[in-house]
Specification:
341 residues, eight-stranded mixed sheet, 10 helices, disordered N terminus, binds zinc ion
Length: 341
């Protein structure tokens, strides 16, 4: 009897151990699994909805934008990704007075949307991954769907968040916290990111980096023969570490051609100042902007889903993920060794 009990207990012991192994304990880390979790199909499914006429061009404060926002929140809830600790919902509410303060465009109240993957080792250190989800609405009866600008970045964020959450569920959560931010009011003057920088949920001094995505689903005239490229802007302005991480992550996992044409401070387009990362960078937070350049449909009603190159969108989304992954998981916080000028 005793022996049988022992065997019974032993069996129970091993069963519970192996049970733990398969569900909550760490499996060997293979980042490629999470990179591969970001698929063309998922991005296309989201973008077909986010950049449809139903969202009415997602103008800041409009019913169409709010509808797009609810779609995004649905995706986070379905994937079990919470809103950030310390927040009361997926929304950071921004009053109309703030949006109209610099220049009155009669914008209604609007919202940044956020989601959060809490870090396992240094949860107080925050890596922001951002993209704006507003666009320019309806003009003269035509819906400006903004599939590339910035539907592409919007759906990239959803899949990046899901890849981090999957890793966390499998015991490989990021060491630092990931704050996913869908910014509003970008097209009217980077309002959403400016609001966040003035009303941050987490102290800016604990904000390690911003990886910002704005237009990654198309190609420009300088890359007519291949979409296998990305412009990176600002990666070396504040932190040599950030520049090195972007280069290494791309070489190791993705192999896009990184084009630094617009990283030139003398470039007359001044793209560095024209998307949401700037409101982090101006506060000394290392920031990198992923961008495919402009094209004939830029800010036109013809910026449609049918023109998106989903193979390129997928690889660029994967690159943004691997950059954020490295920043979040590396031993040391990025060093700020430059002044940004
Ligand atoms: Zn944009």
């Amino acid at each position: 009897m005793k022996k049988i009990i022992s065997l019974f207990l032993l069996t129970l012991f091993f069963t519970s151990c192996s049970g733990q192994n398969s569900s909550t304990k760490k499996t060997p880390l293979d980042e490629q699994i999470y990179i591969n979790n970001i698929t063309q199909l998922a991005l296309k499914t989201h973008l077909t909805i986010v950049a449809s006429d139903e969202m009415e061009g997602r103008d800041t404060g409009s019913p169409g934008q709010k509808k797009a926002g609810r779609y995004l929140i649905d995706q986070y809830q379905k994937a079990g990704i919470p809103f950030p600790k310390g927040a009361t919902s997926y929304y950071q509410d921004i009053p109309a007075e703030f949006l109209n303060a610099q220049y009155n465009e009669n914008l209604g109240d609007s919202e940044n949307i956020w989601a959060f993957i809490e870090g396992s080792e240094k949860p107080e250190e925050i890596v922001v991954v951002s993209a704006h989800y507003d666009h320019v609405g309806i003009k003269k009866g035509e819906v400006y769907n903004g599939a590339d600008d910035d539907g592409s970045g919007t759906v990239a964020l959803v899949e990046i968040a899901k890849a981090f959450q999957k890793a966390k569920n499998e015991g490989h959560g990021p060491k630092r916290s990931i704050l996913i931010m869908h910014m509003t009011g970008e097209e009217h003057g980077l309002h959403g990111s400016r609001y966040y920088s003035e009303n941050p949920l987490f102290p800016l001094k604990n904000t390690v980096a911003d990886v910002n995505i704005d237009m990654i689903g198309r190609r420009d005239e300088f890359h007519a023969d291949s979409n296998n490229y990305i412009y990176l802007i600002g990666s070396d302005y504040l932190s040599t570490d950030l520049y090195n991480i972007c280069e290494a992550a791309n070489k190791k996992y993705i192999n896009l051609t990184i084009d630094y044409k617009y990283n030139d401070r003398a470039d007359k387009n001044r793209f560095y100042y024209r998307s949401d990362h700037y409101n982090f960078a101006k506060n000394g937070i290392p920031s990198v902007f992923l961008f495919n350049g402009t094209h004939a449909d830029y800010h036109k009603a013809t910026d449609e889903v049918e023109k998106i190159e989903f193979d390129a969108l997928t690889k660029r989304t994967q690159l943004a993920f691997t950059i954020a992954w490295e920043i979040a998981n590396r031993e040391n916080r990025l060093v700020v060794d430059k002044d940004g000028n």
